[in-house]
């Protein structure tokens, strides 16, 4: 069936239950950012492949809502369908659309296993007397060749990489529960479960997690997972740590058995409404970020040391890649898609490589203006030529850590506009990564510092300035972030041990896109009469290209920082490279002069 036939099949089923609208979010039962192929219902029903978006279908209309990262991509992929693109922050909201197209007391349906408690409550508050029907999974009926659930085995993440045992983590978690006077904590988020039980797997593309749930009390630690996912080694390790194993599908019954008046702590953004409804009405619920999220946000000494090693491996792969792509561009033999495959191969050559941490964004010229451009979804990927700018945003999971890095490089001659915009982004990157701030400072403050050079030029971008990074878990991790809003991750206080990206950018549709991203570690700077001060320490060591820099736009301090950073890149990476790759590194690390 084509997209239109799928929508028509959905409408026929909606009519049988008198549904005036049907919502298909980008989600799975765990509210994951990236979902297994089995749960890509919105992709199947709309044709839009971006990682974020919501499809709404009514009797005679269909709309897809997505954010600024995907405006250009969604416009292209929805072309030819009857689905209208709604740009979040610029067009009519999904709630406004539903109010206008669903009658008072009309029914709105969706699969409650794939909608969070937070989103359900928000929708319910906005919809007034309209009825929300949460037990409707029509996509499963329509999607005849739906991919099966992942079958790969889980593996144990050794303490020499994790830095803490399962028992240690359970001890801390239970202490936090006692502080909050909780009887249970229910965990649905896959990266939190992976962290707590030192468990990793292959159930989600680019994220080494396993489909599972956890229910922890003072006396029990229960893991709900399909038995076929467990190897004898993993089962032995878990049981030795006091973890009780239950079938994945039993979680609803287990929640329903919790006695009234007991206190359950859960994260409403990562708990689906269908499972939430399994709890008895007289169970007391405490809400907030998963307690394990707060635990894993502060990396321990082992995780930090291992992450340093992961970024050396990543830097070696990136230098080999940029040398390869710049050489190949002169023969007109390199496309964006070929570059994605080569970069994966070079990372995979590094010891202890597990998988990419997300689909590589490699955009040449105007394609780089598409913030989350995916050349693997482009039937006619651009040929990379020896001119203009190439943006490469990629990362990998190694046993030592998770990486995420963006560099924009000059493939040859650049225009003045490209050089000015590149230098503005570089100034923004330096302003953010050199930030110094007192204890208690939220991420929004650092984001504001980073935005200053772009704001002064009356230019901006519409994605976050930085996100937390997990340790061999999700490449995007809370609770902290560098964003320009005093809510959510932007309101979280920064603390030593937090790992966060610094990634300002600038995107000119039809011309070029620029982003410079390094991962940072928050560390203590000094303590004086004014309190304790923190700063950001780079974890990423890949030289920043100086060829497109408009050097007169840099202050002396900025130029000094840039040259010192690139010099350290040479010091860190040169022992691991040889011949042409070493020569390429030396050229890219050469000091920039006025």
Polypeptide structure, described:
By secondary structure, this protein is of the alpha+beta class. The strands form 8 sheets. It has a 6-stranded mixed β-sheet, with helices on both faces. A 6-stranded mixed β-sheet has the order 12-11-10-8-13-14. Helix 10 (232-240) links the parallel strand 11 (221-224) and strand 12 (243-246). The chain is globular.
Distance between the termini: 61 Å
Radius of gyration: 24 Å
Structural class determined from secondary elements? alpha+beta
- Helical segment tally? 19
Strand order of the largest sheet: 4-3-2-1-5-6
In short:
The chain is built from 19 helices and 28 strands. With 594 residues, it is of the alpha+beta class. Helix 14 packs across helix 15 and helix 16 packs antiparallel against helix 17.
Topology:
Layout lengths: L2 H14 L2 E6 L16 H6 L7 E5 L3 E5 L4 H8 L5 E4 L6 H8 L5 E3 L7 H11 L3 E3 L5 H4 L12 E2 L2 H4 L3 H14 L4 E4 L2 H7 L2 E2 L12 E5 L3 E4 L7 H9 L2 E4 L4 H6 L6 E4 L6 H4 L7 E4 L3 H7 L3 H29 L6 H13 L4 E4 L4 E4 L24 E6 L1 E3 L2 E2 L2 E6 L5 H18 L2 E3 L4 H14 L9 E3 L8 E6 L16 E4 L2 E4 L3 E4 L2 E11 L2 E8 L17 H18 L5 H10 L6
Parallel strand pairs: 1-5, 3-4, 5-6, 8-13, 11-12, 13-14
Antiparallel strand pairs: 1-2, 2-3, 7-9, 8-10, 10-11, 15-18, 16-17, 17-20, 18-19, 21-28, 22-23, 24-27, 25-26, 27-28
Question: What are the defining features of this structure?
Answer:
19 helices, 594 residues, alpha+beta, 6-stranded mixed β-sheet
């Amino acid at each position: 069936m084509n997209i239109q036939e799928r929508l028509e099949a959905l409408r026929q089923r909606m009519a049988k239950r008198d549904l005036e609208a049907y919502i298909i979010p980008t989600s799975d039962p765990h509210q994951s950012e990236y979902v297994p192929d089995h749960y890509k219902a919105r992709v199947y029903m709309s044709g839009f492949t971006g990682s974020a978006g919501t499809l709404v279908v009514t009797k005679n209309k269909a709309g897809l809502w997505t954010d600024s990262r995907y405006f250009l991509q969604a416009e292209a992929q929805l072309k030819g369908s009857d689905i209208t693109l709604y740009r979040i922050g610029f067009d009519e909201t999904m709630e406004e659309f539903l109010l206008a197209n669903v009658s008072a007391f009309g029914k709105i349906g969706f699969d409650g296993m794939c909608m969070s408690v937070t989103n359900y409550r928000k929708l319910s508050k906005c919809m007034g007397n309209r009825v929300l029907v949460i037990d409707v999974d029509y996509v499963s009926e329509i999607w005849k060749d739906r991919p099966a659930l992942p079958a790969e085995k889980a593996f144990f993440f050794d303490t020499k990489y994790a830095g803490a045992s399962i028992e240690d983590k359970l001890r801390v978690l239970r202490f936090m529960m006692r502080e909050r006077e909780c009887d249970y904590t229910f965990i649905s988020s896959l990266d939190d479960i992976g962290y707590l039980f030192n468990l990793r797997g292959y159930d989600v593309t680019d994220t080494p997690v396993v489909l599972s749930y956890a229910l922890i009390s003072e006396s029990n630690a229960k893991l709900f997972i399909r038995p076929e996912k467990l190897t004898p080694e993993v089962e032995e390790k878990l049981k030795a740590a006091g973890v009780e194993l239950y079938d994945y599908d039993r979680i609803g019954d287990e929640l329903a058995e919790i006695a009234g008046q007991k206190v359950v702590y859960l994260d409403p953004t990562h708990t689906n409404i269908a499972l939430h409804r399994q709890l008895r009405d007289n169970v007391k619920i405490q809400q907030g970020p998963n307690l394990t999220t707060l635990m894993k946000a502060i990396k321990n000494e082992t995780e930090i040391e291992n992450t340093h090693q992961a970024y050396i491996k990543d830097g070696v792969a990136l230098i080999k890649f940029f040398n390869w792509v710049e050489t190949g561009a002169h023969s007109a033999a390199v496309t964006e898609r070929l570059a994605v495959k080569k970069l994966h191969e070079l990372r995979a050559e590094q010891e202890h490589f597990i998988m990419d941490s997300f689909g590589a964004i490699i955009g040449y010229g105007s394609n780089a203006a598409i913030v989350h451009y995916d050349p693997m979804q482009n039937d006619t990927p651009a040929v990379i030529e020896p001119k203009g700018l190439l943006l490469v945003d990629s990362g990998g999971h190694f046993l030592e850590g998770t990486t995420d890095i963006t560099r924009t490089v000059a493939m040859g001659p650049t225009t003045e506009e490209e050089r000015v915009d590149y230098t503005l982004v570089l100034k923004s990157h330096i302003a953010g990564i050199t930030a110094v701030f007192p204890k208690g400072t939220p991420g929004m403050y650092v984001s504001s510092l980073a935005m200053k050079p772009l704001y002064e030029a009356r230019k901006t971008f519409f994605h976050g300035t930085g996100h937390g990074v997990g340790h061999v878990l999700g490449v995007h991790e809370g609770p902290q972030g560098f964003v320009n809003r005093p809510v959510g991750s932007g309101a979280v206080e920064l603390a030593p041990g937090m790992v966060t990206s610094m990634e300002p950018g600038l995107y000119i549709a039809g011309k070029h896109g620029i982003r410079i991203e390094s991962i940072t570690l928050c560390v203590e700077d000094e303590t004086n009469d004014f309190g304790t001060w923190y700063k950001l320490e780079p974890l990423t060591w890949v030289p920043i290209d100086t060829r497109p820099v408009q050097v007169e736009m840099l202050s002396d301090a900025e130029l000094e920082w840039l040259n010192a950073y690139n010099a350290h890149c040479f010091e860190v990476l040169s022992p691991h490279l040889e011949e042409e790759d070493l020569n390429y590194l030396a050229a890219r690390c050469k000091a920039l002069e006025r």
